[in-house]
Amino acid sequence: MSVTAAQGFTAAGIAAGIKANGNPDLALVVNNGPSLAAAGVFTSNRVKAAPVHWSEQVLRGAAVSAVVLNSGGANACTGPKGFQDTHATAEKVAQVLGGDFNAGEIAVASTGLIGVLLPMDKLLPGIETAAAALSADGGEAAAIAIKTTDTVHKTATVSQGGWTVGGMAKGAGMLAPGLATMLVVITTDADLDSATLDKALRAATRTTFDRVDSDGCMSTNDTVLLLASGASGQVPAYEEFAEAVRKVCDDLARQLIGDAEGASKDIRIEVIGALTEDDAVEVGRSIARNNLLKCAIHGEDPNWGRVLSAIGTTQAAFDPDRLNVAINDVWVCRNGSVGDDRDLVSMKGREVRITADLSNGSESAVIWGNDLTAEYVHENSAYSS
Amino acid sequence: MSVTAAQGFTAAGIAAGIKANGNPDLALVVNNGPSLAAAGVFTSNRVKAAPVHWSEQVLRGAAVSAVVLNSGGANACTGPKGFQDTHATAEKVAQVLGGDFNAGEIAVASTGLIGVLLPMDKLLPGIETAAAALSADGGEAAAIAIKTTDTVHKTATVSQGGWTVGGMAKGAGMLAPGLATMLVVITTDADLDSATLDKALRAATRTTFDRVDSDGCMSTNDTVLLLASGASGQVPAYEEFAEAVRKVCDDLARQLIGDAEGASKDIRIEVIGALTEDDAVEVGRSIARNNLLKCAIHGEDPNWGRVLSAIGTTQAAFDPDRLNVAINDVWVCRNGSVGDDRDLVSMKGREVRITADLSNGSESAVIWGNDLTAEYVHENSAYSS
């Protein structure tokens, strides 16, 4: 039920005409309170889209009454005009919703092609249409409206103890650490302040969205928002709430990987035996980003040599002669050399598990990646033209 | 004329049966002196192949009398047995060449699949065949014998003032900085000591092979050797000699990019206006490695937004609002935003030029890369299986 699973939220998703093909392209999520507490995490790319600059500013106020999201255009690298357009979008939402709404509490998120101005003549009227369509079961429509090359919409919900955390996500390409390319809105009816939401959201994204690496490409528009209405009247214990947020993020992150552009395999890379968690993450990302390995996995080839050559490019602490690698639980590399018979490895399924043991400690991390396919090349060589 | 263009060298390339398809797979290059001065640069991958460990040791002695190279197997991640095989290979060359030759002065290089032991029952007899075939015009055959997925063999020569620098290279995949994946042997008949050779070789590789990035994947086997026979009796000035070595390296590096696996475009990325050369190189590499941009260029799509998103992931000093990007000399991005009409960009040719202006200084660097194609995926998903 997406962003309207939690009490206190309404949402809508409509076609404003931003996309040439007429598909839904505008989503509105409204927090009807009583609380407007919120937290946000944004791309670490230094080239940030106008809506990211805007929403970072909004989040400093720690209150978010609504989020407006569009697909069909990223509004990134669009200069002062792009920022003005984002501002005008928030103003329009405040005006249409009326009452106590003001633009400074309205977050904006955009996704699509970089370097193109949004068609404001379509977007602004679309906000009126979306506002008129707001409903307590509009979460699904909102999730559909933020899709770009996504083949399916992504939602997740956890309910317990009288409160709920629910969310929606989009993202299929430009998926890489810090954050994966995506827009995510998570809502809850728990009654928690913004500082608590921020702590729970950062803890959750650090081990979920930040550990997805589909194609090594970091977006200009990544946005993850967590909004709390307090409408359930429940005040969950922090650990319980944080775990619920983590579960929703993890579920959505897995759905992003499962729908990555052109991918035929989801690759679960678990690095174990690391001296530090940072070492484990660095090694996992290096493996996830290795184009040659991604091709090998596409070809169902348990080419562990490419895993070792990827590990060898990192600064992590390890001895090359003590590295072990398993593919789908067959230890094809032991002590940096030939291990069990690679013909024992079956790679027919969609999920491929790589375990890299650095034999140098007890820390670990899991990174999710994808294979590299001709379809990925096709989709991304034809995307804007 | 490859490695035999310079006086004092003989070479051979033969089929030893290491490759299943019967193609040439063993090369031998012999320095007949009077000098045996030599220098070498090796992969910075921490997972190094047995022949890299061996040859690094040989180079510490600063004298190299011969180089034996095989394709058809990388002898990487092969444990103690792999190192014994490399040692046995050098011993065999010393024994077959006889006289003053000793294994400690014989460099070994291998290329091919990682994690497989070499067929020594074929390689060792092959050394006898190769030694019998040594000739002063064997450079071409040697260059052919080190090919793996290369579609053409690569040689380059510079002659001036009575002395010559010539070389051969192989490499088509796993091409990335520090060094590009490849084997390179360069010879000269200039009479220079090993320290001078080392200085000239490091200066040359730093701005040539180290600035090639075909697929972001760093090999376990990269080896670049420079051997001087002194046979010309000429002692060139350092600057002249260094420039000749740089020219040969640059020529070979361009040939590597031009023959990269599956590539349909060579991408010349020039970063200008950088505060430091390191910044320029970091930005250039980030652009060269961006899979989405590589796909866009394959599709002849001047998608400058992907250039900016790649620049944004670096630590280089710049202001996002002052970035300018030209594709084939059309400034499609000015001041971090939309610039000249992207329809003015023609990308029909094999070479595509990207200029990224950080507007933050006067340093620059050129990185060469390739596009990403379905053929690259195909070639590398089927390579070992």
UniProtKB/TrEMBL annotation, chains A, B:
**Top EC class for this record:** transferase
The catalysed reaction is: L-glutamate + acetyl-CoA = N-acetyl-L-glutamate + CoA + H(+); N(2)-acetyl-L-ornithine + L-glutamate = N-acetyl-L-glutamate + L-ornithine
Q: Do you know which Pfam families this protein is assigned to? A: ArgJ
Name the Gene3D superfamilies on file: ArgJ beta chain, C-terminal domain (3.10.20.340), L-amino peptidase D-ALA esterase/amidase (3.60.70.12)
List residues binding substrate.
148, 170, 181, 261, 380, 385
- Identify the metabolic or biological route this protein is part of: Amino-acid biosynthesis; L-arginine biosynthesis; N(2)-acetyl-L-ornithine from L-glutamate: step 1/4; Amino-acid biosynthesis; L-arginine biosynthesis; L-ornithine and N-acetyl-L-glutamate from L-glutamate and N(2)-acetyl-L-ornithine (cyclic): step 1/1
| EC number(s) per entry | 2.3.1.35, 2.3.1.1
Q: Where is this site: Involved in the stabilization of negative charge on the oxyanion by the formation of the oxyanion hole?
A: 111-112
| UniProt keyword annotation of Cytoplasm present | yes
Asked if the record carries the keyword Lipid metabolism, the reply is no
Identify the SUPFAM superfamilies for this entry: DmpA/ArgJ-like (SSF56266)
Which residues bear the site annotation Cleavage?
A: 180-181
What are the entry keywords? Answer: Acyltransferase, Amino-acid biosynthesis, Arginine biosynthesis, Autocatalytic cleavage, Cytoplasm, Multifunctional enzyme, Transferase
The protein's location, in the record's own words, is: Cytoplasm
Can you tell me which residues form the catalytic site?
Answer: 181
Instruction: Please give the subunit comment from the record.
Output: Heterotetramer of two alpha and two beta chains.
Family classification: Belongs to the ArgJ family.
Q: What does the UniProt record say this protein does? A: Catalyzes two activities which are involved in the cyclic version of arginine biosynthesis: the synthesis of N-acetylglutamate from glutamate and acetyl-CoA as the acetyl donor, and of ornithine by transacetylation between N(2)-acetylornithine and glutamate.
Report what the protein is called: Arginine biosynthesis bifunctional protein ArgJ
